[in-house]
Design brief:
single chain; 4 helices; mainly alpha; flat
Length: 76
């Protein structure tokens, strides 16, 4: 059910943003697993932290690129 919902929602975002969202899926699985009482090894926690940092950096870059893009000039 979750995968179907994600595939449906992917149509409303750019391919880059969809990739970032899919990259966060293992992180959320780890969070839900931890809430359910499972333990993650230190290496898995480090990997999750790196994914979260990567998502933050990519989102900041996307916002910066949108702010810097000049207005399009009409062709004659």
């Amino acid at each position: 059910l979750i995968q179907v919902t994600m595939n449906w929602a992917q149509r409303s975002v750019s391919p880059t943003r969809a990739t970032v969202i899919y990259a966060g899926e293992p992180v959320w699985a780890g969070v839900v697993g931890r809430i359910a009482g499972e333990r993650l090894p230190a290496l898995a926690l480090l990997g999750g932290a790196l994914i979260v940092c990567g998502v933050i950096v990519s989102e900041l870059r996307l916002k910066r690129k949108k702010a810097v893009q000049p207005a399009a000039t009409p062709l004659e």
